[in-house]
Amino acid sequence: MTTWIDIGTLADIPQRGARTVQIDGQKEIAVFRTGDDHVFALVDECPHKKGPLSQGIVHGHNVACPLHNWNIALRTGEAQGNDEGCTPTIAVRVEGERILIARPVAMPVAA
Amino acid sequence: MEFQIGTIEPAVDSGDDIRVPADDVREHLVVVGNGMAGCRAVEELLARDGGRYRVTVFGAEPYVNYNRIMLSPVLAGEKTFEQIVINDRAWYDDNGIELIAGDPVTAIDRAAKRVTAQSGRSVHYDKLLIATGSDPFIIPVPGKDLQGVISFRDMKDVDTMLAAAEAGKALGGGAAVVIGGGLLGLEAAHGLTLRGMKVTVIHLMDTLMERQLDEAAGWLLKSALEGRGQTILTGANTESIYGDGKVEGVRLKDGTEIPASLVVMAVGIRPATALAREAGLEVNRGIRVDDHMVTSDPDVLAVGECVEHDGNVYGLVAPLWDMCRSLADGLTDQHSGYKGSVTSTKLKVAGLDVFSAGDFSGGEGCEDIVLRDASRGVYKRVVVKDDKVIGAVLYGDTVDGGWYFDLLKREENVADIRDLLIFGQAFAQGGGALDPKAAVAALSDDAEICGCNGVSKGQVVACIEAGNGSLDAVRSTCKASASCGSCTGIVENLLAVVLGDDVKSGPKTLCKCTSFTHDDVRREIVAQNMRSIPEVMQLLHWSTPDGCSSCRPALNYYLLCALPGDYQDDQQSRFVNERMHANIQKDGTYSVVPRMWGGLTNPRELRAIADVVEKFNAPMVKVTGGQRLDIFGIRKEDLPAVWADLNAAGMVSGHAYGKSLRTVKTCVGSEWCRFGTQDSTGLGVKIERMTWGSWMPHKFKIAVSGCPRNCAEATIKDFGVVCVDSGYELHVGGNGGIHVRATDFLCKVATEQAAMDYCAAFTQLYREEARYLERTAPWIERVGVDYIKQRIVEDEAGREALRARFLYAQSFSQDDPWAERAAGQHAELHQPLAPFATAAE
Ligand code: SRM
Ligand SMILES: Cc1cc2nc3c(=O)[nH]c(=O)nc-3n(C[C@H](O)[C@H](O)[C@H](O)COP(=O)(O)OP(=O)(O)OC[C@H]3O[C@@H](n4cnc5c(N)ncnc54)[C@H](O)[C@@H]3O)c2cc1C
Ligand code: SF4
Ligand code: FES
Fold first, then answer.
1. Which residues of B271-292 are buried (b: 16+ CB within 10 A; e: fewer)?
2. What is residue B560's three-state secondary structure?
3. pLDDT tens string B243-262
4. How far is A92 from chain B (nearest CA, A)?
5. Mutation for A interface: B510, B532, B542, B572, most A CBs within 10 A
6. Residue B15 has pLDDT above 80, yes or no
7. For residue B585, how many other CB atoms are within 10 A of its CB?
8. What confidence tens digit (pLDDT) does each residue in B176-186 have?
9. N or C: which end of chain B has fewer CB within 10 A?
10. Ligand 3 mean position to B625 CA, how many Å?
11. Torsion angle, alpha carbons of B280, B285, B287, B289, to 10
12. What SS3 state is found at B240?
């Protein structure tokens, strides 16, 4: 059964921006808030060379990786265009102002 | 210039004054008028039967054939004359056409079948084609002949307007009056406004463009133009133009006086029929022609704005394309026949979408369907009569213009789609989703896509299918979208429909979210006084909700540059380094480079850096190529604390991360060096103090060397100073990066102060005119060093103004961004959300 964790409010994340959160000492998760106030959560690692996606420019429902500008779809974690690769996504629920994310069960522990 | 042709020497001979090969026995077609219709007729003829006639073209203007409707973009600075040439010299040569430009025909002797030109040159014809166009109407008020009163018809008029704008600049912006608020007048006013003139439009009627727009759309247009700084006087009647030899202003019937150094009359046109009338041809409002453009003399044809067909005269290009087809059919013994044209109008003013077609005056049996969306600034009105569309006026959203026009021309029965009609094609024809591709796919093959060049959908599709897979290729092949550009979106959608994913994107737009170029966007931001990224995206019809990682940083910069002190910087539109004020590294940590003015440092700074390295366990510290120290491996959480420590020792951000002033490298100079001629170190420090913190299109580096040995490598910097005994040599546009480029020499100045003033002016010119992510080297290669010299060296007042604008902008940007962060601003950018541990189960 999914465990939902309350990580904060919408206002904690800048619009078209992201914050990171670490749960149980696992890999950092990037929680994105888009221009139309959708929230997405992805492991904070680009499928290319592990660039911190949380630091990229958010546009539409995509983020441009800060290291080499790959475009990653926030909903699926898939690299767009000619690039190939996928970042794991984490389920998110927004209840009122609060953001809840699914506890990552099978996630590798940070190295 | 290749396109300009000198005036013809007077010829004396009484025989044929052109060379004709003895064996050329073809019939001779003489064309009077080297304009849009005359040349198009010849093109159509060549396409049907290339060898049939020997062709001679007389033109009053000293140019090859150019696209008259594009004079507006030339005036607005969006196109050059070269870009609007339709047929260059080679076309005439390749097709064996004799062009006699700059020599108007003055008489036609129909009995002898001869024409005579101003120079005295006389030529025999077998067939004569009159395509003399129109004469602008000049209202008969006192002062109409003063110097500075012109019309808007040809390249000469544009040159006069540009000269007036230029002359006005010297006085801090001249003033112009445009008489006539129709299509032509408004395009003139728009261009003159962009050229820096203060423009007043005087319009006799209460509504602008009243022949094309209804009251509501006219009002929206008027407010939009006023918003751009024009003064619009409707219901205003010109009494006289006053001035002593030259125009000084316009007086209205109500006594108002409007000072101006230029008056443009754009109140209408009259078919140019004098020549035909004197030759005894049948002339009414225009030269009377039949369905194959034949006049009352079977050997004389006429085409274009000078003709009257079936009681109608036309003032737009679309009808003329139809006329030329029928004419060429007739001349080559094919029979189609011209049946008159329905016309539509678009205003060529960037960022203002206006479309109208057909009859919208309303009246008996007419039904109006109206849609307004005030927040989007959209107004649409479709007039339906007997279940057919008879007119449409669109303001703000003109994508469906082509579709309504198509329905109108085909007189299609719209009873079934009546209720959805106003929402546009995509809705009305089902599917519900507003898919522009589906919309263009549904257009009929003969629907006109490009009104300027008369290109139908079928022709565009054929052109794409023939292998022209990009917007540029389509433009250069079938000319669609090559003129005013308002159909660019439709052509792009056609490319997408025909080629699927194989479309080669046009290189010139700012990014995929827009069909505007960098220069268009910058110009419109200023012209329309836009103040935020969402506003730019709204007004310039961005195709994505909030842009992409290419356009957002560019727009953020353009706004910042346009509105110093006013614009609220958008952090989320900044690339990570500029948002974090540090350089991101491959492992996600950051490097920190504090400023060391002119490469100088002292024990206190060195101690603070050493302490930071130890305190935060920085794995490396290194001397950069920019004469300062770089501390590596700092975590984003630690950045504010690192900066606080550096600030405490008096150090500020070095902007090693920014599209901004980076370093000012110096050498030892006269203080110590045995060859030094001036205090290069001291000057470097002063220049860095003046320029630091400024945001730029790309990074910007400066250096000052104390003598021509040039130890600071000033000649590969964006701005470089090489000191010599007698003063300071200034160099610009160098680059030591991917493509090494040595600087261009700008000029030599005598004093430190002058060196700093030129530096500030040059920096500001670059800030205002280069495209985002264009360094000075490619910028200068694009605009030419002569242009830079003209702006910075020759134009003293201009240089002073640039310098003042730079210093004004700097007064807002020299706050240390590190200090703000160290004090807690934007802490969320550095801190993760609180870590979580789920309770062990
Ligand atoms: C740190 C430094 C190397 C060093 O250790 O010496 C450096 C480091 C980087 N340079 Fe550089 N450049 C450094 C001096 C230079 C110089 C020499 C100079 O400034 O005198 C040049 C050639 C001169 C020039 O710019 O014309 C230089 C030409 C480039 C270029 C190519 C620019 C070009 O127009 O072709 C890039 C790529 C870019 O900007 O797109 C670049 C990009 C970079 C970036 C920012 C790569 C990146 O995007 O991450 C590197 C950041 C490393 C980091 O995280 O700190 N760096 N870089 C130097 C910092 C100088 C400073 O104090 O600010
Ligand atoms: C600034 C501007 C913007 C316009 N914008 C649009 C638009 O957006 N859409 C649109 O549909 N239409 C537009 N028009 C109208 C369009 O340009 C004309 O409909 C078109 O040019 C008419 O073609 P024409 O060949 O009949 O006349 P012209 O193109 O004027 O050609 C006539 C030529 O004949 C020459 N000539 C005249 N007398 C003689 C003589 N005796 N001997 C030799 N040569 C002679 C003239 O010098 C001229 O070069 C615009 C016009 C202007 C001026
Ligand atoms: S040359 Fe510049 S960009 Fe390349 S590795 Fe060195 S520091 Fe990085
Ligand atoms: S690490 Fe993300 S694009 Fe290279």
1. bbbebbeebebebeebbbbbbb
2. helix
3. 999 999 999 999 999 999 99
4. 15
5. B572
6. no
7. 13
8. 999 999 889 99
9. C
10. 10
11. -120
12. strand
Q: Tell me the pLDDT tens digit for each residue of B129-146.
A: 999 999 999 999 999 999
Give the three-class secondary structure for B547. coil
> Hey, whose CA ends up nearest to atom 4 of ligand 4?
A68
Tell me, using a 6 A CB cutoff, whether residue A51 lines ligand 4. yes
Question: B237 and chain A: CB distance < 8 Å anywhere?
Answer: no
pLDDT at A51 (0 to 100): 94
DSSP calls for B95-112: TT-EEEET--EEEEETTT
The secondary structure of residue B247, as a DSSP letter, is -
Query: In B, which residues are within 8 Å of A56 by CB distance?
Result: 549, 576
Check if A42 has its Cβ closer than 6 Å to any atom of ligand 4. Answer: no
Q: What are phi and psi of B359, to 5 degrees?
A: -105, 125
Q: What's the start-to-end Cα distance of chain A, in Å? A: 27
Q: What ligand is nearest to the CA atom of residue B738? A: 1
CA–CA distance, B291 with B294 (Å, rounded to integer): 7
Ligand 1 contact via B529 beta carbon (within 6 Å):
no
Bigger pLDDT: B486 or B199?
B199
B483-486 long-range contacts (CB < 8 A, ≥24 apart) are: B483/B67, B483/B69, B483/B70, B483/B84, B483/B450, B483/B452, B483/B453, B484/B69, B484/B70, B484/B72, B484/B73, B484/B346, B484/B348, B484/B452, B485/B515, B486/B346, B486/B348, B486/B353, B486/B398
CA distance B397 to B352: 9
Helix residue ranges per DSSP H, B585-650: 603-615, 639-648
Measure CB to CB from residue A14 to each of B549, B572, B586 and give the nearest one. Answer: B572
Query: CB contact, 8 Å: B572 with chain A?
Result: yes
Residue B466 · residue B459 · CB < 8 Å: no
Q: What is the pLDDT of residue B436?
A: 64
State how far the Cα of B551 lies from the Cα of B530, in Å rounded to an integer.
16
**Token pair for B706:** 């104390």
**What mean pLDDT comes out for the span B356-373?**
73
Structure tokens at A59: 């546009």
Closest CA to B645 of B609, B621, B606: B609
pTM, entire model: 0.53
Total number of residues shown for chain B? 841
Per-position b or e across B114-140, b if 16+ CB within 10 A of its CB: bbebbbbbbbbbebbbbbbbbbbebee
pLDDT of A104 strictly over 70: no
Residue A51: its chain B contacts at CB < 8 A? 588
Query: CA-CA distance, A33 to A38, in Å (whole number)?
Result: 6
CA distance A8 to chain B (A): 8
Other beta carbons within 10 angstroms of residue B420's beta carbon come to 16
Structure-model confidence comparison of residues B394 and B11, the more confident one: B394
Q: Positive or negative CA dihedral for B64, B66, B72, B78? A: negative
Task: Note the ipTM here.
Answer: 0.68
Residue the block writes with tokens 């021509």: B708
What single-letter DSSP state applies at residue B794? I
For residue B332, the tally of other CB atoms under 10 A from its CB is 14
pLDDT at B38 > cutoff 70: yes
CB contact under 8 A, B833 and A7: yes
> Would you give the distance in Å from CA B173 to the centre of its chain?
20
DSSP state of B792: I
Cα B837 to Cα A22, A23, A101, B115, B616: the distances in Å are 8, 6, 13, 97, 26
